[in-house]
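ok so for the tutorial part 2 we go from a plain amino acid sequence to predicted structure tokens. step 1 is just haveing the sequence, like this:
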Amino acid sequence: MEVLGISIEHADTVEAVVRMDVPEPLMTPFGSVHGGFIAALFDTALAIAVHRRLDASDRIATHNLNVSFVSFARDRHLVCRASVLSLRRAVAVAEGQVATADGALVAKAVGTFGVRREPGR
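step 2 — the prediction. this is what the tokens look like for a chain of 121 residues:
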């Protein structure tokens, strides 16, 4: 996560807040943050939100991530807020939004995760 400038600001069973201080190599030649790295921020934050609702020994894997971009991100300090919409035995769904440091919305996402629980539970 360090290579991408990602750090966890807060994470509990209600919400995960993950920050990205975007390194220069992740910027496009046009001066905005590359959308693929914003997707990586979503994937990380949504997964953290899901995992905070599981036992430490349980594992998850991203099945689907749908990102809708609404504006360019020229600000290199982004924050993703993520929460769980549904958590079942084998599948979880989470949503999030990425905004600039001043609160301008950049993108929204919904992710589906496979859940593998510790055997015997």
